[in-house]
User: What shape does this take?
Amino acid sequence: MTTNSPPWFFLLTLLLLIFPAHAETDNTQTVSVYYFQEDNPVVPTGSLVLRSGIPGIFVAQNNQARFRMVRAGKTRQQLTAILAGLKDNDKVIQNPGALFDGQDIEVQQ
Amino acid sequence: MNKDNTSLNIAGRTTAYFINSKLTVLLIIFALLAGLFSFYMTPREENPQIVVPAANIMVSKPGASPAEIEQLIVKPLEAILQGLNGVEHTYGMAMDSLGVVSVQFEVGEDKEDALVRLYDRIMSRLDEMPPGTDQPLIKPIDIDDVPILNISLSSDQLDDQKLRGIANDALEHLRQIEGVSVSFIHGGRIRQINVQLNLERMRKFNITLTDISQALEATNIDIPSGTLVNGSRETAVSASGALNSAEDVSMLVVGLHMHQPVYLRDVATIIDGPGEIEQLHRIGFGPAFKGERPKDIEVPAVSIAIAKISGSNAVTVSEDVLSRLEQLKGSVIPDDVYVNVTRNDGERARDAVNVLMEHLAIAVGTVILLLIIFLGWRAAGVVTLTIPLILFIVLAVGYASGQSINRITLFALILSLGLLVDDSIVVIENIFRHYARKGVDRMQSAIEAVNEIGKPTNLATFTVILAFLPMLWVTGMMGPYMAPIPFNVPVAMIASLVIAYTVAPWAAMRWLKVSEHESHEHLEGHNGMLEKGYTRMMSTLLTSSKVRWLFFGGVSVLFLAVLAMPVWDGVLFKMLPKNNTNTFNITIDMPEGTALEETDRVSRLVSDVLRTHSDVENFETTVGQSGVVDFNGLLRGSGLKRGSHVAEVRANLHDKHQRDDSSIDIVLSLREAMAELAKKTGANIKLVEDPPGPPVRATILAELYGPDYATLHKLAKQLRVEVFNKTADVVDIDDSITESTSEYRIELNREKAALAGIPPATVAKTIRAFLTGYDVGTVHIENEKEPVPIEFRVPVHDRVTIDDLEKVFFTNPQGKQIALTDIALVEFVKAPLPIQHKDQRPVVYVTGELSSTSQVYAVLKMWQYLNEHELQDGIKLKQYFMGDPDSLGYSLRWDGEMRLTLDVFRDLGSAFAIAMILIYLVLVGYYRAFGTPIIVMGAIPLTIIGVLPGHAIMGQYFTATSMIGVIALAGIVVRNSLLLIDFILENQKAGVSLDQAVIQAGQTRLRPIMLTAFAIILGTLVIIVDPVFGGLAVSLIFGTFASTVLTLFVIPLVYYLVAQWQTTPVEQ
Assistant: This one.
């Protein structure tokens, strides 16, 4: 009887193949963050990006990567000074790669 | 023609001429064609154009403090301008080194004429300018330049400079379309040659900025030198040194070092690309967005803003532009660029006009149905024929006089619909009455029928016209806004009169048939249930004086009770209610001195709040300046804001016909979250809705005047805290005081500089180049649509603190390097605050908006509080509404919507009073008596019994449009009572006793009066839900209902009593 499964089972398998259940979470990226401190306003240089000509960084905000335009100062030893655009305790996403504004993320603890 | 025609009145004569004339057919065809032509050709717009010529005059005097600018520039300039003819207000602003005076001419002043006068006045007095001032710059503020279309180009791939290039290419194509006027690109950076100076290397090679700019200016030229003639031919010669690329710029020799040339690239990095970001523009997408969009929530964008030529049709211009835009997609606009139309006033106008056209059609349909029920289909058919003819004539007259089809013209048409069928109904009814007699000559009796009712019909029509005409003199911006009503209604009335005397009898003679039983019924008299009931009630009122006095007592009590309604807030007043629109604005003002990046961060938080609402389709954020200006922003003056601390978010909502919440509700629902965000970020966030009528600077605008400006600042702060903050429903509270900021002031030691041989101008220029950049000419690149400047600048990371200024140096004529710090002292000081003026008086503004209620009550509450209390400092403000404030003591004038409301109600009230006087005078002329007109006009106050409770029942504010309704009602009800009195007089002349004359007149006029009333009620019912014109509908519907019912009893009764009282002594 096991070989003779009902037709709905076949359909369900097909549907699951076409629309995998984890399709929506596929875009979620795991990221590591750096906590920005106003008394030492630097970020890892690798977190700086240029998006459509605008210099910025991505911050983690409500499990989303959000773009922030920043004004970068001098770079020393892989740390770049941030002159404007960030606030204390902003979670700066390190090495954002191809993240987009509003992408779902999971912050690596 | 009949030989008796000489004895006919004008109505009879007109009918006699047209009833059997080919001209009538021609008239019908002409009206139809002219109407159809006008219908298609008249430009369409949402609201009538309001012409308010205005201009900004800017005069700079480098180095002068605001106080100095105020005394030397702003005050004299204001005095010069105030004396100019037609100037309504001047607004002055004295800032550091710059004075700006905005001049606003009176509404309706001819734009060109006003500006020529302004130029003339300023130019002829240039010699009075204090020494050291630059030539004044006069910038007209032109409403015609407000874009009607906004096309947003965005991309997640291309940078903003490339987007701007694409937008420029597209704009070149769109500009060619007929009707397109000023158009511009908003957002994106231009291409430029960035010369990033390396101060260390410059020092090493001993090259100063002056050296570089001199070398550049001397090289970058292309001058035609002359011609050579040889062999009978002329050949041009030109000397060329023009720089054509970044490469050329980098290879520029800027000096010599150790006998070797120093190239610009040796002391600077040269980059061909966008400059530093000074403003940002982007588009974001909300939950209601359905089209194709990038993955990102917000992406950089560039907007193409297109204005139309004044007088052209917004609908066709925007349609043409958009269809051309479609053609550009894929070629000029690459496929990876997202195109969104974020403002389309053409479509908005078309929608608004179409909706009202639909409403007009519904109203016409309802009125026709009513006519069929009351008059039977043949008579109704004749009247129905006249409706489109009259409407078409009105449209044609409107077109000929240069009007547009807009919301107000269509409201005027709907409003006149109930009135314009009246004349034809009266004519047809009377012809019908004549035809009911057997064996009459159809033509002759039709002429006689018209002749009979000619005089009272003329008079009744003119009273309606007289009621509306004075509204043409409403002043201020509300005047031209409402003008289509007093223009179109009288035109419709005149057209209806003409058609009633020409086309109606012509058609009646051909098609009006009287059936056997109708003829019978007519001879017997129309004695239906209604008439019987009326007769019974009227007889009781006439015979029993007790019942009569009870009735009068009842009406009087009702009247007084209704009049008391506004006192206990049973009816609330407001200028105009807010409109349900598809867009609103959010303005963000950060404290002065906030970096662009921080303003940008807050603007993103604002859009995060905005995106929470499910009806938000998209939003456009501009940081560093205000967004693409709209009519409201232009007049509020918010459209010209610049600076790293300002931002604006324009929210575009899902189409209003496809959402449940109105824009008013949406804004209300966002207010709390925005207020919280404002508190958290220190920003001033305002939600600005499009005003339903003319824009004002702020809904509540308190202008503080007084002798000492610093005290005014203190008073404004106290007013905000003690009064505005404590008044319920007042939101978006702000003042005009710029936060005090600190600045570095470089004080040049003149002696040291002179000894070092460094001219102060060189110092100023160098520091400017260091901080803001310095443009030195342009490179010459063919096919580039915008100039490509060469900009010198020090890279961002080399100018972070004031210590970085130490790197700046100069070279004296001896070749010695002098550091800036050697010849100047850097001080950290408080920046002087700007001073504002209005009409030559120093002023500080405190502003506020209302979240949902009427400002009238908030202002009255504040006014009362300030009348009873002193502010914290013990200063009692003298308050003004209309008058000029006292400049010796401290005073407050309430401007903004309050002033507009008072002005409008004052003007409409005066218009009403003038209408009353005119109607009275005409009636006196008609009746040759002073008393009878008063009885006739007694119907007017009766309308109030319906109007005020009507507003209370519908939960509507009594608005300016309600007031227009009241004025219209005066004309309508006078018509009813006029015909009643006329019939009584006719009956009396025929020898009928007074009480029978009164009863019979009521009986005969009952149906036509009710028909008119129903036509008005049903005709206007369709606009009762309109947020702006609902008030007009409420006034008309309830006012007509109440006054019709009461007029039928009160007017004949009063006439009866007066007549009885007059005859009694004679009988005795």
Notes: The interface with chain B takes residues 51-54, 66-74, 81, 83-87, 100-103 of chain A (CB under 8 Å).
